[in-house]
Write a structure and sequence with these properties.
Elements (H helix, E strand, L loop, with lengths): L4 E6 L3 E2 L2 E2 L8 E2 L23 E2 L2 E12 L2 E12 L5 E2 L6 H27 L6 H27 L5 H16 L1
Antiparallel strand pairs: 1-6, 2-3, 4-7, 5-8, 6-7
Pfam families: DUF922
Protein name: DUF922 domain-containing protein
Organism: Maribacter litoralis
């Protein structure tokens, strides 16, 4: 008989600057080969928005536990996703720099998915694993939101080109690790 498994599946979605659940949503998993085109942005522009574009991206995870020789083992998956139908842009004020800025939002989401994977990999869990994982996830999301805000602030939403270029380089290097 195989090991006893308890499975917990939690699907949580981060949309930049807020958390919401989206069911039946089209999603694209982060990949080093996937680069945005404006055709990927399929959402409706909200009335009155001053932004040129918005990238909806998020982190989701699932995990399962089982016991082997009396010791609890944990299997987990963490993913960074882009949500095309929740992402939008204004063609009249968006350009290639704007698109690159939006790509970096998704790349930053992947960096924080990696941070969560590392936290989970290095954690020691108790029987309260569901709550412990949830706390790690929430802390990672708070850090991600803060970092996304810092990125927008420092680059002035892509308008400060030298700073935008620095961020492109730094995030690119971080993704190579």
């Amino acid at each position: 008989m195989g090991p006893l498994r308890n499975t917990y599946h939690l699907f949580l979605l981060l949309i930049t600057f807020g958390i919401v659940a989206v069911h039946g949503q089209e999603e694209v998993e982060w990949s080093p080969d996937f680069r945005f085109t404006w055709n990927d942005f399929k959402g409706k522009v909200p009335a009155g928005s001053g932004a040129a574009a918005t990238t909806a991206s998020g982190i989701s995870y699932d995990f399962s536990t089982y016991y082997e020789h009396g010791e609890m083992k944990v299997d987990f998956n963490v993913y960074a996703y882009f949500y095309p139908t929740k992402s939008w842009y204004k063609p009249d004020i968006s350009n290639d720099v704007t698109l690159l800025h939006e790509q970096l939002h998704f790349d930053i989401t992947e960096l924080y998915a990696r941070k969560l994977r590392e936290k989970l990999d290095n954690a020691t869990f108790t029987d309260n694993i569901k709550e412990e994982v949830r706390k790690m996830y929430k802390a990672t999301i708070r850090q991600l939101n803060d970092f996304q805000n810092k990125y927008d602030s420092e680059t002035n939403y892509s308008r400060n080109l030298p700073v935008q270029e620095r961020w492109v380089k730094e995030i690119g290097e971080a993704l190579k690790k």
